[in-house]
Amino acid sequence: MITVRGLCKRYGDKEILKSIDLDVARREVFGLIGPSGAGKTTFLRLVDLLERPTSGAVYFDGLDTNASEKVRLDIRRRMAIVFQKPTVFDASVYDNVAYGLRVRKEKEADLHRKVTSALHTVDLSDLASRNARTLSGGEVQRVALARSMVIEPDVLLLDEPTANLDPVATARVEKLISRVIQELNTTVIMATHDMLQGQRLADRIGVLMGGEILQTGNPEEVFSLPRNREIAELVGVENILEGRIASNEEGIVTVDIGGNVVEGVSALGPGQAVYACIRPEEVTLALSPPATSARNCFPGEISRMVSFGPLVRVEVDCGFPLVALVTKRSVEELDLRGGGQIHASFKATGVHILTR
Questions:
Q1: pLDDT, tens digit, for every residue of 258-299?
Q2: pTM of the model
Q3: CB–CB of 270/249 below 8 Å?
């Protein structure tokens, strides 16, 4: 549905996007993740034809968007975008949602049916007559979603759709986005720096850093098998241990990490300088050495504990720092506390080896 080839964008001497190639399939939900300033918003603005690239091209359903202004306008009317901070008109919620249909000269009966349906989908029917500028941030975001979905776009672009919302509003808007995606059966490109949101909503993910797409794949591939240290840090791999491969026996490598040995799976040979990457949720804690198949087990001392909702981040000193993410129930059952002794274990298959 969307094909991007050699897409570059400069503002003066600053290069925001660097020769991006990307294909987004029809009805695919593509998540674009990356840190602030990576170029995500610029990419969406170029796809939505709000700006022209410095070089390169965007193709929409096979059409070259660098064609005439008439072609660009026709294509733009088949797309909709929801910005991080959407603008609403000084008018009722109903009229805000109806705006795109009125521009397209929709018949009044059809317009009313579509607007009413869209307001129902985003749970704003009771606020239809309210001035949109009196709404909360979460309600404004829902107006923007309704305004986008009501025109039944072939492509829906979402730019950090929950970045400025509290957790309750974020959960509600995410649920609505899922519903809109299902009901419209449309192609979606969503930019977000919320890694978990990308995992929850996207079929496939692209990592945009420094103006370049460094990796694409399904969420499991990107979050479990990052291609380099920067991506690993971005997607929440907190355990990134520097070491050197000591041996490789039929694909099972031993990595020397300051005198400690970690086993993982890799084709790399002895002597190779590497990072051993372990996601915190791969680390299991126990009061005694576990009788499991885990090849890696280290005694250690708990140095710090921090709660995150139903989970607890536990830092363990095993002669090297190791972070585990466990449930509060596990913390209570194991009576975990700062200074306590613990055994941390993880499987060799849970260790992702990257070259340094």
A1: 889 999 999 999 999 999 999 999 999 998 887 776 789 999
A2: 0.85
A3: no
